[in-house]
Specification:
- With 300 residues, the protein is α+β, with helices and mostly antiparallel strands.
- The protein has two domains: 174 residues, Sandwich (Jelly Rolls), CATH 2.60.120; 103 residues, Arc Repressor Mutant, subunit A (Orthogonal Bundle).
- Helix content is 37%, strand content 20%.
- It has an eight-stranded antiparallel sheet, covered by helices on one side.
- Strand 7 and strand 8 form a beta hairpin.
- The protein is globular, with a radius of gyration of 19 Å.
- The two termini are 18 Å apart.
Length: 300
């Protein structure tokens, strides 16, 4: 299962969208400000990413959770904040129920431009690796989300800001960083949309052989210009970024599937098993086989 870009498409001039599901993660309902409900095909059980933040609360159910290169079994209630472009999925939640807030708060959005929103900076930076919140805040957020589903427009906005304020005040010992890797772009106005498009192309084509010429065609940049801006926006060279995201995908496959290590290496875009093993050890300080055993999957 390859990574997929989820097209969230917030409504014009809206800060967030609010989703619920009952008994089936693939059967999502979008709760709109006018009180209407719109059924959507859920992507939560598929390995996906999107440029928006996502706050997900599993209120009922248990299963496996993947965030970046982190994998674990979870049990409700489970509250996780996921940063932009961080791959995630809940592949076997089964008859679960829950809520999700998907939102943007960058400097291009009117809400993100408010000085008061700077109080969220630390939390949003940490979200690039995924945050699990524990303690009393989980129940408070669940109550807030249940209320949000039935509020009118202004009440929704007030409740949304209340949720963010609650999370920003959670003590550090009640926050758990999930992933060792992140795919967040360093915010710079110049060429950000172009590099974001390049990152989306990479994530959508992980199983293929991706060369510099493919990305030059996507971005319509010269090689020196692309290399300079890609490193400036991602903090890594193209080769380092490709290796990192491919290892993240391989870890998910090792934990979730019974495919052979060779099959997983090729499905993640590596064309040489020895190179895959070297890169995996460099990233994780253990072999793919040892990682699979530690994840609780006996595999092949």
């Amino acid at each position: 299962m390859a990574l997929a870009l989820e097209q969230i498409g917030l409504e014009p001039r809206k800060s967030f969208r609010f989703l619920t599901w009952t008994d089936n993660l693939s059967d999502i309902v979008r709760c709109r400000a006018d009180g209407s409900r719109l059924k959507l095909a859920g992507r939560g059980d598929q390995w996906h990413f999107h440029p928006e933040y996502e706050l997900t609360l599993v209120s009922k159910g248990k299963g496996k959770c993947f965030v970046g290169d982190h994998v674990e079994n979870i049990q409700s209630p489970d509250l996780v904040l996921i940063g932009p472009n961080l791959p995630h999925c809940w592949p076997d939640l089964g008859t679960s129920s829950g809520f999700a807030l998907q939102f943007v708060l960058d400097s291009n959005h009117p809400l993100g431009q408010l000085h008061e929103m700077r109080a969220l900076e630390t939390m949003l930076q940490d979200a690039n690796f995924g945050i699990r919140f524990t303690g009393p805040v989980v129940q408070r957020i669940e109550h807030a989300m249940r209320a949000l589903a039935n509020l009118p427009m202004l009440g929704r906005l007030a409740k949304f800001i209340e949720v963010l304020a609650e999370l920003a005040d959670v003590p550090k010992h009640e926050q758990i960083r999930l992933s060792d890797s992140n795919l967040m772009l360093i915010h710079q106005e110049q060429n950000m949309p172009v590099i974001s498009h390049a990152v989306s192309f990479i994530l959508n084509n992980l199983e293929k052989e991706i060369g510099i010429n493919d990305l030059l065609e996507v971005t319509r940049m010269s090689k020196p210009t692309f290399s300079r801006h890609f490193k400036s926006h991602t903090g890594r060279s193209l080769t380092a970024f490709l290796n990192e995201v491919r290892i993240v995908n391989a870890k998910r496959l090792l934990a979730e599937t019974n495919e052979s290590i060779t099959e997983i290496a090729f499905a993640s875009g590596f064309r040489n098993l020895s190179h895959f093993n070297v890169q995996f050890r460099r990233s994780s300080a253990e072999s793919p086989r040892d990682y699979r055993k530690r994840s609780g999957n006996s595999g092949i």
